[in-house]
Amino acid sequence: MSSNDVMDFGQAMEQFDPVLGFEVHVELNTRSKIFSSAPNAFGDEPNTNVTALDLGLPGTLPVVNKEVVEYAIRLGVALNAQVAESCRFARKNYFYPDTPKNFQTSQYDEPIVFDGHLDVELEDGEVFRIEIERAHLEDDAGKLTHQGGSGRIQGASASLVDYNRAGVPLIEIVTRPIVGAGDRAPELARAYVTAIRDIVKAIDISDAKMEQGNVRCDANVSLMPKGSDTFGTRTETKNVNSTRAVQHAVQHEIQRQAALLAAGGTVTQETRHWHEDTRTTTSGRPKSDADDYRYFPEPDLVPVVVDREWVERVRAELPELPAVRRKRLKAEWGFSDEEFRDVVNAGVDGEIAATVEAGATPAAARKWWMGEIARLANAREVEVSALGVEPAHVVQVEELIAAKTINDKIAKQVLGHVADGEGTPKQIVEARSLAVVSDDGALTEAVDAAIADNPDVVEKIKGGKMQAIGALIGPVMKATRGQADAGRVREIVMERLGVG
Amino acid sequence: MTESFDVNAELTADQLVRLTALQMAERLAAGTTTSVELVQAHLDRIAEYDGDPRSDAASDRGVRAYLHVNTDEALAVAAEVDAIRAAGGAEAEALHPLAGVPVAVKDNIVTVGQPTTAASTMLDGWMSPYDAHVIERIRAAKLPILGKTNMDEFAMGGSTEHSAFGITRNPWDLDRVPGGSGGGSAAAVAAFLAPFALGSDTGGSIREPAAFTGTVGMKPTYGAVSRYGVIAMASSLDQVGPAARTVTDAAALQQVIGGHDRRDSTSLPDEQADFVAAAANRDLTGVKVGVIADQSTEGFDAGVKAAFDADVQALRGAGAEIVEVSCPHFDAALAAYYLIMPSEASSNLARYDGVRYGNRVVPEGGGTIEQVMAATREAGFGPEVKRRIILGTYALSAGYYDAYYGSAQKVRTLVQEDFAAAFEKVDVLLTPTAPTPAFELGAQTTDPMAMYLNDIATIPANLAGVPGLSVPGGTVDGLPYGLQLVAPAREDARLYSVGAAVEALLDERRGTPVWAQAPDLVKGAERAAAPTAGGQQ
Fold first, then answer.
1. Interface pTM (ipTM) of the complex?
2. Given an 8 Å threshold on Cβ–Cβ distance, is A52 in contact with B370?
3. Burial level of B496, CB count in 10 A (0-12/13-18/19+)?
4. Candidates A100, A161, A290; nearest CB to B351
5. A300 and B265 in contact by Cβ < 8 A?
6. Which CATH class is domain B11-328+417-522?
7. pTM for the predicted model, two decimal places
8. For the segment B148-166, what is each residue's pLDDT rounded down to a tens digit?
């Protein structure tokens, strides 16, 4: 059988227990690089954000950026972890052209952060505790662009290297093995990476844009037969670049390994590459514990000493963490468990909070963000946050409704135009003449026309069949292109017919 | 010397270059010599006696100290200093006391405007876009840089025979090595081709050449001088320091280059002591001088041992208290050094791969990046460099790390403890700097172990990070030998103080400084016709 065959997930879960482990690399958004004064910036001309050190020139020496240490402390505190009183950097030696010194300056046996944990909530509210083994600092490599061929290194005719990213600070967060997730493993994988992404964003140590590579996840997966407590051979799926992909990659790897093991095969310890298009992984290079990076303490740097006052100051100044914030908002908004979870799962809790902050009621904010705005985003296949509708727009829509300038139906149209970039709701209502018709003269004219056109209906109403009024309101709304206030139309009909 | 120095005397160029750096400075201040005259005198002498390490050694009997002579820039800086002095006023007042006194620089220290090769084919033709910290200091003090001096490739060696470009000769005997790795700097100073020079010392590369050439060499406390811009061999051992003819000149040069630099994390934050003032000491009364009772002297030249014993007696006679101390772990220092140094070097030299700078060798018909890197390193590194890279790669490998690198670090701690215990009893330690005087060219090139043993007395100071100073003892069979003084970390001033007193005592006993006894060199015109003894490279 091929090592890429898969077993049905449910069947796999009957036979095996998955064991997960994650290495999440987070690019820190410090102003300068980890060991040099070069700007830490994304998207600039190649090889412009470099100093002599970033090019590995002879004689250059690293100096630890204090801001990087501060960020690591922040993460340590946020992950309920220990922050080392003293820690060292180490050299990880390997030759690769994107690594200007041909070694990475990382941390080996003395990480700055260790022994933490994170409680991760799944969509249905079930909570898993993930143990964090360590988080360590290191420098990023440069970026290779392969010319010719498929854009991969195999078959390329030449490669260009941009050292702008070389020396960008990374913190690598490593979990302990995660057992007991069972068939929730793929969901847990997604929830964990989402939680890490949200935390590093909330404590402002990273821009946390997975699509830009600010957060990069390597997922370790192994299986053990049901009832066993001996870990199987693991694979490491590299650089899975969205939270959804993490879920899919883990599920695929479980299914692939299950098929392999069930057929009597063995899992090869190796790096695997995730392919978003086919939702499969393929074999990368074999990886074994014998990989020899010849780690030794970085002799050009003295140990990083973090005094306890520093840690306590960072702890005191730490921004509210996402989990705490959600608990607070739920209470403040008075949402039910289900309502709140839906909001969080839809990823619009931040938008709702901002909308409430700007003056709308929580219920109104929820109605719009979970309703029309979500529908628009879905229809246009973009994230809600990328749609172009701002919390202030929602507040304005609510104000226009309260003032009876527009009704709900018009409001939906207005939001669509906002998403088209036509301006604020007020500007759009003005420009498109969408205000509800509240001029009684115009309405009375339309009502009179409807009465004249529908004598039979009038008869029914006069005969006491008040529900027949709807049959007159319809033509009026049609005549005013929906811009009339239906309640007011009803009142005028009753006045003109002398009923009620 | 300084006592009988007449700042106003009329001097020939030949006399001028034999002054100490501080005497040159005095004449500049007094206006009896210009910096341009001084620099020109040295340039003329270089042209007359130095030759070129890159030329065929068999037909070049020059000293061959300089890989690059910085003629135009040195003269321009000299002219600038002269102009400032001539104009007088605040700017002249603000000139550094050594402004206008020329200096030579070892070729593993990066310099804008001059090539920096570390004597390796790998970097032949490479120009640094930035200056080392010590060069910034030299420029700020306006010392004209005469040029870059020859050395063992990447500072790996004890004879300068491992330069990729060619040998340097010992001015005392042109068929002998000047020591290494800083043989170029020491030979330049001994041959009056520079009053003083910068070197770097990882296991003895400043001190051993000083001993071999009858000059003074100081390895400062680790962290006393910034390593920023010094091409690394072994980061935890490398230290920049001065080579000079007198202890006071060395002190004056360290004063210029030393002190805190935030670009080197291992740089000490300490305020520098006044080294020149310390070097004014002539009194050894009551100074506790430790001699190591239990270090093996196997392989030590009998003449050196006898001369050392005589010098110890002289110190005792001058009032020093001689105390025997025990340093039981020094015998393991050499082995530990030859694990730690190559380990760090193997990593530090990984960057030379032909990708970003330096020479690139593409295999015939092109090749993958791995093949280009391999071909570049195969062609760009000499055998000694490769030997150490392979040694270090092996020592750091999984499964060997604990036995080799790990054990070596433990020995390092024990060596530090030996020093600490010794310095509870004594102010300084005294040893011979090297087991033998300068050996003949080619004598040890095929025996790496013999070459490594030259560093046996100097290595412990690097492992412990303490300062070591080599001063000339005298001569054995017409060749200089050195005395090494070692002090506790951060006590560089104590070394200059005791070192200057020892130097004065021995000069008086001899009736002359050792460096003044060096034989005459071979002039350019005669060099061409000279017989081809020595220098097989």
1. 0.95
2. no
3. buried
4. A100
5. yes
6. alpha beta
7. 0.88
8. 999 999 999 999 999 999 9
